[in-house]
Amino acid sequence: MKNRYEALLVLNSQGKEDTIKEIIDRLESDFQKEGAQIEQVQKMDKRQFSYVAGALDAGYYVNFVFNADPQLIGKLRSKFKLDAEVYRQSYQRLTEKKEKPPKKLAKAK
To answer: If I label 3, which of 10, 16, 40, 74 is the partner at 20 to 30 A Cα–Cα?
Structure first.
């Protein structure tokens, strides 16, 4: 059973500002290779961190919305943990997208 997820990845863009698009394309293909069906990719631009907890003071934020099996989340976490260009990652399960039922029209008298 596939669930809908959102993955927020913070990329280490220090010195790589011109290759961000290639990095995002590679990450998107990594999601698809593992079996995820990408629904949406939101490029949220580079932002400063509110507090510095490591070597970086800013990162490029990318949000992926995708459908995948629950077991895939652990595999993605492990894979991106080893990726030097992914600084932070966060995953959240989303509610299923529901189709709105058509509006009922009032009956004419």
So the answer is: 10
Q: What is the pTM of this model?
A: 0.81
User: What's the domain range around 25?
Assistant: 3-93
* Cα 13 to Cα 54: distance, rounded to the nearest angstrom: 14
Average pLDDT over residues 61-89: 95
For 42-72, what is each residue's pLDDT tens digit?
A: 999 999 988 887 788 899 999 999 999 999 9
Does residue 99 fall inside a structural domain?
A: no
**Residue 9 tokens, joined:** 């990845």
Q: What is the 3-state secondary structure (H, E, C) of the chain?
A: CCEEEEEEEEECCCCCHHHHHHHHHHHHHHHHHCCCEEEEEEEEEEEECCCCCCCCCEEEEEEEEEEECCHHHHHHHHHHHCCCCEEEEEEEEECCCCCCCCCCCCCCC
One-letter amino acid of 34: E
- Sign of the alpha-carbon dihedral angle for 80, 67, 29, 17: negative
Strands 37-48 and 86-94: unpaired
